[in-house]
Amino acid sequence: MINIIYEDNHLLVVEKPINIPVQADNSEDKDLLTILKQYLKEKYNKPNNVYLGLVHRLDRPVGGIMVFAKTSKAASRLSDQIRTHTFKKTYLAVVCSNNLKAQGHLENYLSKNNKTNMVYEDKANGKLAILDYKLLQTKDNLSLVSIALKTGRPHQIRVQFSLINAPLYADQRYNPQATKNQQIALWASQISFNHPTTKELMNFSLPKPNRYPFNIF
Fold it and tell me: In the CATH scheme, what architecture does the domain 3-216 have?
């Protein structure tokens, strides 16, 4: 069962479980978009396929809060807010460093290698990636940070912190010290946007997960 946080005629806000793809991929594992469409189909007794717009994404291993659009108009207006940076996304992460500043601003130009799906710094040809972070707590060689994402590049948070020698805990792509059977410490904790029809400011948040290493802070 998916945790439904909020629903009206235009929006569906949910908690994405970890290790489930947002949409169908080559793994053929059940994906969140398909699950939610089936939920709407059954709840409203829809005889045909239902519309559900995907306006933003989370990497498969990452859990947390997401919003979907139940109409094409809502999808278009939410996408406009993402493009104009009025759609705010905040993440919590545990990084492998105890040398971070109290707050920081990261800007990098990133490109994706389509053969390996790895993202790397490419100052000449990459796309600008921007985030701000605040250091919340440090314990031993780990730090809990809050991240305000300014752009939405693939793997952005994971790559940008690896570039400052503070890779995410258990990130098996960008942390050389990560081992298998660990869960990446990245969590989509909050979103804020204007309702696509009423224009009301909508804020939704989830507490940090009760699992290692989040639970040591």
Answer: 2-Layer Sandwich (3.30)
